[in-house]
Every structure is written in C-alpha cells, then in structure tokens.
C-alpha cells in the first residue's frame, strides 16, 4: 500500500507542510478543533442525505481535518490526464450521435452504444455548440504508487461534490488561516467563474446578446440541493426548478415577477429521464415540457447535454484508452484499471473463478451500491453474487482489488493512514480546464476500501502545491 | 426575480413575523392571567388568545376548555398547527432553504440556528418555569433575523417582498391583538373604563411593546381611545396598522407594476392605505372596534392573496402572458 505521507519512515516532501503543522498544533489541539469544524459546516448548512438509511436527512458528511497534498508535478500529470480524458469523451459523444467513425473503425461495437440505457436516440443528429456534450466531467482517480494513478470511472452526466471541494477549503482557511498565508497552496475559488465562462461560451444559435444562465435543480428536497444553490450563488445565476420554466416557440423562459424572461444556457442537475415529460418520463414534474425540442432547434443549450451518460458507462469505460488514441492520436496519460468484461465468455470464466480477490460492479450502478468487494466478503455473499452474475453477465465488470493509496487522517491516537480516492472536475467550454484541487473521499474505517459518502466515507481538503512549494 | 423566489421570501418573512407575534400574544395572555379576577368569574384570556392567533380551528379541544397549558402547547409546539412557533420556524427555514441563493449567509444562519435550537427544546421545561425566558428568546430570534436582513440584504426586489410579507403579517397580527380585548369578557360588575378594563388595555399595549411609547406620546392614563390611536392610526408606532399599510403601498410601488393586474393591486393597496389614514378613533369606536378590525383583517388578507396572484406566486397566468409579450 502506498502511503502518501510517509516513505520508509520519512515524510515525503509534499507532506512536509502537513507534518510541520501537526507538530506545531499538537494532536490534542487539532482534535478539539474538530467540533469547531463541525459547527462551521452545520452553519453553512452543508449536509448530505444518505439514500436508503432513513434517519436525519440533514446529516453531515464527515470531514477529516488533515488535508491531502499533491505536489506540482503530481498535479501536472492529473491535470493533463483529466483534460485529455474529457476531450476524448466529448469527441466520442460527438461521434456516436453523429458519423460513428469509431464504430466503423471496429473499435467500439454498435450494440454497446445503441443497447445502452443512457444512449438517447432523440439526441442523434444534434450537435451542441462547440460540439461539447459533457461540460463538466468528474474523473474518479485512485493512486497505487508514487507514479501510478488509475482512472476508476468517468462521470459525464451531472457529477456532484465540487461544493465540498470549495467548502472544505473555506472551513480550513477559517480554522487555520496561517496555513494559507504564504501562497504555497494554490487557491480554488475560481470554479464558479470558470463554469460560468464555459456556459457563456456555449450559448445557443438563437441567443441574442449576452446569454442568460440558470441552474436547474430538482428542488430543495434533493440530497445535492445545497450544492446546487451554492453553485448558483458562486456564478450569480438564478436557481430554477422545472415549474419555473416553460417553452414557447422553442425558446425557454423563466417565470419572474416582471413576467417571462428568456434563458439561454441551463446547467441542469436533474437526470435525463426527468428533463422533458414530452420526450422522457411523462410523469416527471421536475422537468420542462418541450425543452428537448427547444434544445434541438437551437433555442437553448443544456449543460451537460442529455445522452452524455453513454460515455461514462462502466462497459464503455474499458474503451476510453482506445478513444484517446483514436480521436486525439495521443497515448493516455492516466491508465484504466485492468478490467474484465463479464459479457465476454473467457473474462466471465476468469471472474467467476477469482471472485474472492476481485471487485465486481454493476455496469449501470453507481454510489458504491450493488458491488462485491471479494476479499472483504463472506463465502455466502460471494455465492449469492455469483448467482446474480451468471444470470446477467452483460450487466457486470470486474477489476482487481487495488491497493489504494492511503493519506493520514486525524484519529484519537494521532495520524492514521486511510484509503482515499480523488475526483477532479474538468470543465469544457472555449477551453478544457480544471481548478487545482478535487474531491478527496476517504474511507474512515480502518482497512475499508469504500470511500462513498453513502457508505460511511468522509471528505478532506485537497491541496495542490505551487511550483517549488514542496521544497519550501 | 423568479416568482417562486419572491413567494419564498414573502413567506419566509411572514413566518418569522408570525412566530414573533404568537410569542407576543402568549406574553399578553400570561400577563392578563396574572390580573386579579373577581371570584366566581370564568377566566377567558386563553380562549381570546387562541382566537386572536387565528388558531381556534386547529385547537384540539372546545374553546371553553382553553387553559394556559393547552393553549401554550398548541401555539408553541403542536406540529398539527401550522402557526405554532415551532412550525413557523420550520416553515421559515424551509422557505429560506429553498431560496438559499436569495438570502445572505447571515440571514440563513440566523434562521437555521434558531431552528436548530428550537428542535432541541423539550416542551416540559420550555412551557413551565422557563416560559417567559422562552418568549424572550423567540422575540430575540425574530429581531436577529430582521437585523441580519436589514444589515446584509441588497435593497432589491427580494428585499421588497420580504418587507411586504413582514408588513402584511404584522398588520394582521396587530389587528388581532387589538381584538383580543373584545373577546376577553369583562365581568358584569366591572364597567368599561373601570380598573380591570384599564389593566387589560395596558396588557395589550405591553404585548405590542408599546406601553412606554404610549406614555411618551399621550401623557395620559391608558384608555381605549389612546390604544386604538396608537395601534391603528399613529405613524410613529412601528406596529400600527397605518405604518404597515403605508409601507405595503410603498413596497408595491417600488417593486413596480408590469401588468394591468399588478397595477390594480397597487391601487387596491393605496385605497386600503387611504381608508386607514382617514379613519378617526371616535368613528372606529362608534362603528364598533371589533367590526372595524374584522373588516380590516378581511381586506388585508384579500390584498395578500391578490399580491400572490398577480406576481405569479401560483405560477398561474404567466404562460398566457408570454404569448402576449411575443
């Protein structure tokens, strides 16, 4: 297991700043600051509702106070790799909803696309402004050694969590302002402007003058509502719900106290299936009737475009390195985790024989639900899972159990290593770029590999040091 | 501004004001109960408090069984009563949460923290010995929310809808508070203008935080004419009907009328303002204070409904409007 802070007993240069800080403050003092951190989060109102657990819907996502650190050169690789990946995924989406060169070239089989639940035939032939379908891509990364990072999965629909990135930093800088005074840690507060600029750059053809932006939320009962309102605030745009919008002659309007007002670019945080009851689920009260027609007519741009999810499916994932070569003519900067496609007979056979050492996931699943972590499962659990797998092999992929890197957390006994992952958020508009940070999720239980917040994971502030920062 | 946002801010503000007004009523009730009542007469303060709060329909028992204990429980904690202090706070918070981008962090903090503290309160301790302290706490939280609105919000349309909500709620509450006196029966042996009558008016003034102001402004003993003048006609009182309706008309003017229907409502508000401005204390009393107040309560609530309708709170006819503006 790769320990991000320690290398043979010595502190790695990137973590010097953390080691000094912990020594200066002392574990006791840091532990006592935890309560203060919690009350800051509560005051901000940042909470995370946990699906299927009942109880307090306003539960706080646990925050660990010890930041995770990346050096400048480490970040350079993550940045280049994530941008490359987002560019390739958008090229793929442009291609499959258009000419389908990658199918003709025999790289991705057609049934993988057309048979995919996230594929939206209604988008065929529609090319969004600048050819971008997925304007915000979350790339989930894990680290296994000093130099190796793997992409665990891509998130092309409506990846969430960026508000934690910004709020974790906010809380840290309120608790320990002196840490940020010498500008070694690169700031993260440009996210709102970056996203707003990207949205402005993809105004639809029918837009006249400055585009009006809005963020579409399912409403304040949604578990990510805090994030929606936070982001709307950061961008200074209206936070709208479906019933606030309506479509007349392929143009979208908001209901305002001054009467109807045009909206040109909508960052939607509701799922495809709820977007337009005329096209998708007819029972959806969250969506806007006619919005898909308006989009195709060039009256509005939807960010991210419907149908973008076909690119982040776990079955499509296995083809991403090929996409990078095919569309960009480059070698992937970040590798995929070696993956067995259970849809293929040989792979299935291998997976069934090695279940106790593999991680098996549902192709369409998310949030850490419905997965099997072989080494952590009982014999009965493995047998039950094998039965599900045999019944629907196409629905599963398998990966080796990775030795995820560990970063230090604050525990009663001092610093203790726990497994972490990372989700940087790549924004595509006129350019493709990201803020120097990402969402670090941490498995707070000792030995656990599951970092999902719905399964008891926590979050950390994530630092990227400026050039030369780790030598300071 | 989004109609839904205007609606949310309007109601957030109404619920905060209502919570505080319920606390004032309970305060008045406690004070009246402490007044001497002749032996053999049945106390009616708590039934009258219930009527003044507008909560008699949600009260689970017959009105004549109203006591301090069951009225306080109903007006403070009862989840079945949308106007109970706890429910008001919950609704204010839900509205603020849904409008999170339209309020500042300070305003959100003030409401959210109040809710967090309220949630932790136990009925037994709160309604018992700690009751006066609790009522002070409610008023202090109301002041904190108002203060943070005043100190941190942009003076834009959202602010105007917040003021509208506050003023409509306050006008309604002041009218109801004045009407409490009508419902508290004076024992037969006591005449209007007698000692108990005086004490009851004094408690109404205290509930409106206006007893000291009364002395400064009128320099005479507390009587019906003075109290009605202060709480209906006097622009110097921040809780008088006059100051509320004037402010409502001004806010509507600032928001502006963009449609015929909005214009009609602005005129309706000005008329109500005129009506109160022209009312003289003697005329009100000879018309019947209770009757006059009842008319006023009907007018102010009709106005509130019309405001909601014409600014699209219910989402109603906005679509038709879009067709017209094409």
The total of helices of chain B stands at: 16
The 3D shape of chain B can be described as globular
Estimated helix fraction of chain A = 25-40%
Indicate the structural class of chain B: mainly alpha
Q: How would you sum up the global shape of chain A? A: globular
Mean pLDDT of chain B: 88
Distance between the termini of chain B: 20 Å
Q: Would you report the number of β strands of chain A? A: 23
List low-confidence stretches of chain B.
316-326
Largest sheet of chain B: none
Greatest interface (CB-CB under 8 A), with counts per chain: A-B, 29 and 33 residues
Quaternary structure annotation: heterodimer
Low confidence ranges of chain A: 48-57
The proportion of residues in beta strands of chain A is: 15-25%
The secondary-structure class of chain A comes to alpha+beta
| Tally of domains of chain B | 1
Please count the helical segments of chain A. Answer: 14
The helix content of chain B is: over 70%
How is the topology of this model organized?
The complex is a heterodimer of chains A (472) and B (326).
Chain A: E1 6-7, E2 10-11, H1 16-25, H2 27-44, E3 63-70, H3 72-96, H4 101-104, H5 110-114, E4 136-143, E5 149-155, H6 162-175, H7 191-200, E6 213-216, H8 225-235, E7 238-240, E8 245-248, E9 251-256, E10 259-263, E11 265-268, H9 272-275, H10 291-296, E12 301-303, H11 314-317, H12 320-328, E13 335-336, E14 340-341, H13 345-353, E15 358-362, E16 372-373, H14 379-391, E17 396-400, E18 406-411, E19 414-423, E20 425-428, E21 432-434, E22 439-443, E23 457-464
Parallel strand pairs in A: 3-23, 5-13, 6-7, 6-11, 11-12
Antiparallel strand pairs in A: 1-2, 4-5, 4-20, 8-9, 9-10, 14-17, 15-16, 15-17, 18-19, 19-22, 20-21, 22-23
Helix pairs in contact in A: 2-6, 3-12, 7-8
Chain B: H1 3-33, H2 45-53, H3 68-76, H4 85-98, H5 105-120, H6 123-127, H7 131-152, H8 157-183, H9 195-207, H10 211-218, H11 224-233, H12 241-255, H13 260-278, H14 281-287, H15 289-310, H16 318-325
Helix pairs in contact in B: 1-2, 1-3, 1-4, 1-7, 1-8, 1-9, 2-8, 4-5, 5-7, 8-9, 8-12, 8-15, 12-13, 13-15
């Amino acid at each position: 297991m790769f320990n991000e802070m320690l290398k043979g007993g010595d502190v790695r240069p990137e973590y010097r700043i953390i080691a000094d800080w912990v020594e200066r403050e002392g574990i006791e003092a840091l532990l006592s600051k935890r309560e203060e951190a919690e009350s800051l989060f509560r005051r901000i109102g940042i909470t995370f509702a946990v699906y299927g657990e009942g109880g307090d819907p306003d539960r706080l996502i646990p925050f660990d106070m010890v930041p995770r650190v990346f050096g400048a050169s480490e970040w350079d690789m993550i940045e280049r790799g994530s941008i490359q990946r987002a560019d390739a995924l958008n090229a793929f989406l442009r291609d499959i909803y258009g000419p389908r060169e990658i199918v003709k070239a025999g790289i991705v089989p057609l049934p993988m696309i057309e048979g995919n639940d996230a594929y939206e035939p209604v988008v065929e032939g529609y090319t969004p402004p600048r050819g971008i379908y997925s304007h915000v891509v979350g790339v989930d990364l894990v680290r296994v050694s000093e130099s190796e990072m793997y992409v665990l999965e891509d998130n092309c629909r409506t990846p969430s969590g960026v508000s934690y990135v910004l709020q974790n930093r906010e809380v840290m800088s309120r608790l320990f302002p002196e840490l940020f005074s010498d500008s070694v840690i690169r700031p993260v507060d440009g996210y709102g402007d970056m996203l707003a600029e990207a949205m402005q750059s993809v105004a639809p053809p029918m837009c006249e003058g400055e585009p009006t932006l809005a963020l579409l939320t399912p409403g304040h009962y949604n578990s990510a509502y805090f994030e929606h309102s936070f982001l709307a605030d950061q961008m200074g745009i209206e936070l709208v719900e479906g019933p606030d919008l309506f479509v007349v002659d392929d143009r979208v309007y908001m209901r305002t106290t001054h009467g109807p007002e045009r909206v040109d670019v909508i960052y939607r945080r509701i799922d495809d299936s709820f977007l337009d009851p005329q096209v998708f689920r007819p029972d959806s009260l969250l969506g806007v009737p006619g919005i898909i027609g308006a989009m195709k007519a060039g009256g509005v741009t939807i960010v991210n475009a419907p149908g973008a999810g076909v690119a982040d499916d776990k079955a499509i994932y296995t083809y991403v390195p090929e996409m990078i070569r095919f569309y960009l003519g480059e070698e992937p900067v970040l590798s995929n985790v070696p993956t067995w496609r259970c849809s293929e007979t040989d792979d299935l056979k291998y997976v069934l024989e090695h279940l106790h050492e593999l991680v098996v996931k549902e192709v369409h699943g998310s949030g850490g639900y419905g997965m099997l972590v072989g080494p952590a499962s009982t014999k009965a659990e493995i047998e039950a899972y094998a039965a599900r797998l045999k019944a629907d092999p196409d629905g599963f992929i398998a990966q080796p159990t990775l030795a995820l890197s560990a970063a230090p957390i604050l525990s009663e006994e001092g610093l203790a290593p726990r497994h972490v992952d990372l989700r940087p958020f790549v924004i595509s508009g006129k350019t493709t770029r990201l803020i120097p940070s990402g969402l670090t999720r941490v498995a707070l239980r000792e030995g656990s590999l599951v970092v999902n917040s719905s399964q008891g994971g926590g979050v950390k502030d994530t630092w990227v040091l400026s050039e030369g920062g780790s030598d300071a | 501004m989004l109609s839904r946002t205007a609606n949310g801010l309007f109601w957030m503000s109404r619920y905060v004001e209502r919570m505080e007004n319920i606390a004032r009523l309970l305060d008045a009730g406690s004070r009246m109960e402490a007044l001497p009542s002749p032996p053999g007469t049945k106390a009616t303060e708590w039934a009258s408090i219930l009527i003044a709060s507008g909560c008699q329909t949600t009260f689970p028992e017959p009105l004549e069984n109203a006591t301090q204990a069951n009225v306080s429980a109903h007006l403070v904690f009862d989840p079945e009563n949308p106007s109970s202090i706890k429910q008001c706070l919950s609704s204010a918070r839900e509205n603020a949460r849904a409008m999170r981008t339209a309020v500042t962090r300070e305003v959100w903090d003030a409401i959210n923290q109040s809710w967090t503290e309220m949630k932790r309160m136990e009925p037994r301790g709160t309604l018992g010995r700690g009751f006066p302290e609790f009522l002070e706490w409610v008023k202090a939280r109301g002041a904190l929310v108002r203060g943070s609105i005043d100190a941190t919000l942009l003076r834009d349309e959202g602010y105007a809808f917040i003021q509208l909500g506050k003023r409509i709620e306050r006008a309604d509450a002041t009218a109801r508070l004045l009407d409490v006196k009508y419902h508290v029966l004076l024992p037969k042996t006591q005449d209007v203008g007698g000692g108990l009558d005086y004490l009851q008016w004094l408690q109404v003034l205290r509930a409106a935080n206006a007893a000291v102001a009364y002395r400064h402004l009128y320099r005479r003993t507390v009587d019906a004419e003075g109290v009605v003048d202060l709480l209906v006609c006097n622009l110097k009182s921040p809780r008088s009907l006059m100051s509320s309706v004037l402010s409502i008309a001004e806010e509507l003017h600032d928001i502006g009328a963009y449609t015929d229907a909005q214009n009609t409502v602005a005129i309706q508000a000005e008329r109500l303002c005129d009506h109160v401005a022209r009312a003289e204390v003697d005329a009100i009393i000879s018309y019947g204070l209770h009757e006059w107040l009842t008319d006023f309560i009907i007018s102010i609530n009709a106005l509130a409904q019309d405001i909601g309708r014409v600014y699209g709170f219910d989402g109603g006819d906005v679509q038709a409007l879009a067709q017209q503006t094409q």
